[in-house]
Amino acid sequence: MTKTSPLAKLYIALVFIFLYAPMVVMMVFSFNSSESTYIFEGFSLQWYERLFHDKVTMDALKNTIVLAITSAAIATILGTLAAVGLNSMKNKHIKSSVMTVTNIPMMNPEIVTGISMMLLFVFAGAMFSKRDVLGFGTLLVAHVTFQLPYVILSVLPKLKQTDNKIFEAAQDLGCHPLKAFFKVVFPAILPGIISGAIMAFTLSLDDFIISYFTNGPDFQTLPIHIFSMTKKRVKPDMYALSTLIFGAMFVLLILMNVAQSRSDKKQRSKGDK
Amino acid sequence: MKKSSFAQKLMNAPYIIWSVLFIVAPLIMVIYYAFTDSTGAFTLSNIAQIGDYATTFVLSISYGAIATVICLLIAYPFAYFLAQTKASFQSVATMLVMLPMWMSFLIRTYSWITILGESGVINSFLGLFGIEPLQMLNTGGAVILGMVYNFLPYMILPLYTAMSKMDKSLIEAAQDLGCNKFYCLRKVIFPLTIPGIASGVTMVFVPSVSTFYISQKLGGGQITLIGDVIEGQFQTAYNYNLGAALSLVLMVMILICLGVLNYFTDSDDDGGVLI
Amino acid sequence: MKKIISLVITLLIVLSAFIIPVSAENEIFSTEVVEYYKSLGLQGTTINVYNWGEYIDDEEIDVITQFERLTGCDVNYTTFESNENMYSKLSGGGVSYDIIIPSDYMVERLLSEEMLLPLDYNNIPNYEKYFDSEKYGYLVENGISDYAVIYNVGTTILIYNKKFVDEIPTSWKVLWDEQYKGKVLMFNNPRDAFAVAQFALGQSINTTNMADWDVAADYLLEQRKLVKPEYVMDEVFIKMESGEYAFATYYAGDYELMVENNPDLGFAFPEEGVNTFYDAMCIPKGSQNKKGAEAFINFMMEPEIALANAEYIYYATPNKAVLENEDYSLADSEAVYPENLQNTQEFHNLPTDTLQYMNNLWMKVKGENDAGGLYAGFFSAIVVIVVILIIHIIKKNRMKKYYNV
Questions:
Q1: CATH architecture of the domain formed by C23-152+279-349
Q2: What residues 149-208 of chain A have any CB closer than 8 A to a CB of chain B?
Q3: A96 CB within 8 Å of a chain B CB
């Protein structure tokens, strides 16, 4: 295990400072006693108080999280299935064309994806004479669609790394293919699945443009809510909200790290015995 | 597995149906709108109008390219150093890199105004030493900074994955054979991480070229990129046809740039290395 | 697996912390009002409201929650940031809203495209009681009042910083004065920005003469050269309050908001004229709950609610009960309630080809990029790529020669 040089540590620290500078600004200004997000006047908790009475913002937050979890779950399942299927596809032509199609949402500017999906949904709605076609369903479909490439591209490399022979060996030993899959292949590609899921969740949380065009009147997400404040000012209550979310995630991260190091210690002590 | 079993076909089917419905069909709609006018008749006038925006296209691609290169330069050493730290630190660090992406994009961009503004954090700090306030906002530099900041994690993650997957024994072997650090980097490390570079560049270049919010807020509305133009066509002018045409041309340009990139990576890896 | 589970659990904990029930407040309405809304029979129904962001009170009185409490009707409240955004959502089809709150020219457009439902004023008794038809009725003549009830009224305004500007400005042309280079904030949307230029040039802000628009666009381009203005919308607040800028164009009520945080600010209504606007509540076609929507409009005109909204939004209200209320803090504001404004103009809906022409001009004005250096960079990048390509191909050929690959 090479020891990390002080230069390396410094560089890593600098990059993290760069990444988190706006976070610090956000946290500081969430306690601002004035409405400004630019000049800090004094310390106050008013924005946090205001946040708890703000039904519209809380609804938007709840919607955003529900949507992110649901769409990430669906995208992960669908994407993993697709990756497994693609990996064992024999026909080179179909395989490469499917891969190209998979890459399209990644290469498309978001506004194009958003508008084209809206046009598609409205067109479909007109065909089935349904008026209120835009809603949670269409939003969910749109989110899953742009998350799928990322899931597939996370799982596929792991699948390639997995030795197919072990899978065949398991089947030779009498395992049903499905069981063999879950016992052999699935654990090996699990890191890829998890990374894909986290990526999908992240993308969905902050998506504005695609959500704007495909959502309906009863489901507003937080990014849309914040973006619609462009006529009046963005007040520090949004900063307060972001600080709280950040705080929660940070605590979770620390908890996970503690749990991980504890299980590592257990494993090490087991190994010693 | 010799023949494609029914189970396999079953696994592929949902995704293929989904992609046809929700990836291919919308794309066809974009192409349809690009080549028709508001009455639905076929026309090439939308494509002809693109000429007006040639400078904006060039500008956007330049900005995107510069932002991508800067991201690469920052992320490459970071990924390399990170891959050498303790395993427990690595997993925490990966999550820490992703965490800012969970905060609202708008709020993050706003915070940069607070940092870079004339009475902002940096200038107040410089003011302590009696240095005159610098003009940082409303410049191209601020826009590029915004792009780099927002998309840096997308470059770090694939690079880090590639770095951590790298077989360390190869580097040790090369060092045993007598090459110095720099040569090692060029001949051993760099080629092994090319798939990671390709993924990272794709994930940063595409959104950078088509971004529309960063240029408005950090550029003081004085810098207009192609994303702003497309957004204007769809949102304000209701000229869906021109907007679709601009989007189509943008997509083609991005594909060309990425195709050139692919040529250099030379991999027949038909999946990128993402995470 | 563990990671996912703990992630989900934490998220749920975070979520539940935010679902705090609204604390019981004192009843602010009279019994008759409470009885009236209860008797409407809207319990269990829903309305979809589509409004501007931050355009309803949620500080003093949570208007939405109060409405839901009194009527039993659920409100889905979503927001938009521009009329055009709202229109593209509405015209795309696929959504049905019960209340939308567009601006004047957008109301006209929706009306001309028959996208609004006529209002049944029997369900909006507060209109007769509280709407100041004398003062504001003219804004909704020509049949518009059959379809829309004004929510807010306002004008554009010129805000200046007394530190940079000695005398009160009298003309929009001061925004073209080179001495204020780098210190001017303009609207970042085409109609408002062009309106500033058109007032300065003495044009009609609703002209359909393309030549007029060309002249206005050239004037704006001149402004870019002389003054290098920044085009902003909501950032105007933090920028003007910071004291770094000399001028801003924005909406009248927002001046009052800004001057609270920076007392150096002053306002002026240039002689060439300002734009008066109104935002009105309408019911779009496709509404599923017209009765609920009309009850909502009526509720917004309740004196307590109208006062809370007026104090929150800072724009002028056409509600007599608010104007006569002693507690109303903005009643004497000269910015929000100016007297004897001359040469005001309202926005009207422009025909599609004018709109597209204006937009193309706007893109030209915004697109004036100082990009000499970048072109150089771009072309040198192409040269570098071509050189690399050539080296690559030469190397490959050499490999083939030596190794028969």
A1: 3-Layer(aba) Sandwich (3.40)
A2: 150, 152-154, 156-157, 160, 168, 177-178, 192, 195-196, 198-199, 202, 205-206, 208
A3: yes
